[in-house]
Amino acid sequence: MLSQESFVGVAGQNTYTFVSLRFLSSDHLGVTVAGTAVSFTVNSARTAFTISGLTLVGGEDIVVTRTTPHTEAGRLVDFNDLSHVRQSDLDTSALQLLYIAQETLDVILGGTFLALGGGGQWDGENRRLENLAVGAAASHAVTKSQLDAVSVAAGNLPVVSSADNDKSLWVVAGVWTIRTPAQARTHLGLGTAAVLNAGTGANQVVQLDGSARYPSNDGRNIDLSNHALLNLRYRTTLGHVAQSSEQTPANDATATWSQTAGSRLTPGTLTSVDNSGDVVVDNAGKKVTLSIGTWEVEYVVRVYNNNAAAGNDQDVRVKLTNDDDTGAQTVYDTFNDKISVESDGNATRGMISIHNIFLLKLAAGGTVVLRAVNEDGTDLRIANTTLMFRKVSTAVA
Questions:
Q1: 132 to each of 115, 122, 140, 143, 380, how far by Cα in Å?
Q2: d(CA 342, CA 377)
Q3: Is the pTM of this model over 0.85?
Q4: 329-363 burial code (b ≥16 CB/10 A, e <16)
Q5: What is the domain partition of the chain in residue ranges?
Q6: DSSP 3-state of 316
Q7: Please, are residues 127 and 23 in contact by the beta-carbon 8 Å criterion?
Q8: Tens of pLDDT along the chain (397 residues)?
Q9: What are the φ/ψ torsions at residue 229 (nearest 5 degrees)?
């Protein structure tokens, strides 16, 4: 441009030499650094300028702009009748007109005014419009502040701030409303699982593995009592109850299991759950008939010593056998140790729980009975019993 000259700042350098820019007075100049006006001085020869009060770091855009007075009051030479006409006065007057013409041309060609684009519309050349009045009529331009407060069909958009980060906008009762994530989930009808991760860790939603199977996690809290698998549970009275509600196991010092029906544990209620015909329950006979297959069997028997005198410890054995009471029992579980139930002599009764889990393979099906015998006397009592069957396979490997 004819009325401007640009420089690139050099670190630590504040004085720069004019190359092409000419001017009649330093008062006609303005200097900006990175778009900001700065103070400066011009040497007496008008060949260089020095920026004041600023330390340059290098790379800044430095622009010197000339603005020559273009009003009648700003004329630099005023000729009078009968005065001497000097060359310098003529040069000054001519240069003032020349510089004004150059600056006008720079304004036109430099795009300071809006130009028409190729489609016949005003071209803003990627610049902002500033100091715009607030639009009032339908044909007026609007300011950003008017857009921030724009109205939409459902109501005014609320004013938001950084405090509303992670929130969202919802139309509630016909009005735009800020909602927290929890409120948004409620609107969507999502439950608490929506905020949990999938996986196999604590407080995660269980995720199936690559073969669509449950992961091998601890399943101690899984309740299979109403599961579609084959389950059976029975219990006597729970806790310490009246003597008539408890059961005294049969006495057998030889532990040969050659007992009669007296060794069978009596359940209070024996119920099959969704057995699909694989489980037949005989409450009167205190036995369960299972179909062909492999079964997971679990039993828990709680036994206490009813003799409170010291030194009267008594031994108990618990077994799952076939239905034979004549002495030819088949013992299905492999737990063979006898369990001693102590009496401590303090008018209290020692208690133990016998818990066993094993696989039972029945190639032709069969009837099973849970039995208990006391090897030392008649003071032991069965407080409660839990028995469960679960068919894990129709095959017998």
A1: 19, 16, 10, 7, 99
A2: 13
A3: no
A4: beebbebeeebebbbeeeeebbebebeeeeebebe
A5: 4-108, 169-222, 231-393
A6: strand
A7: no
A8: 789 999 999 999 999 999 999 999 999 999 999 989 999 999 999 999 999 999 999 999 999 999 999 998 989 988 888 778 889 989 999 999 999 999 888 877 765 666 667 777 877 777 788 888 988 898 888 888 877 766 554 456 677 778 888 788 777 777 778 788 888 888 888 888 888 888 878 888 888 877 777 776 665 555 554 443 333 333 322 222 222 346 777 777 665 555 566 777 765 555 555 556 777 777 777 888 888 888 888 888 888 888 767 778 888 888 888 888 876 778 888 666 778 877 765 555 678 888 888 888 999 988 888 888 887 777 888 877 777 778 777 878 6
A9: -65, 170
* Nearest to 377, CA basis, from 329, 343, 335: 343
Nearest CA-CA partner of 263 in 226, 225, 301, 215? 301
Chain-centre distance of CA 56, in angstroms? Answer: 49
Task: Pick 231-393's CATH classification: 2.60.120.40, 3.30.230.10, 3.50.50.60, 3.30.70.260.
Answer: 2.60.120.40
Q: Token digits for 396?
A: 């017998």
How far is 138 from 159, CA to CA, in rounded Å?
24
Residue 305 phi/psi, 5-degree rounding, is -90, 115
Q: What CA–CA distance (Å, rounded) separates 381 from 242?
A: 11
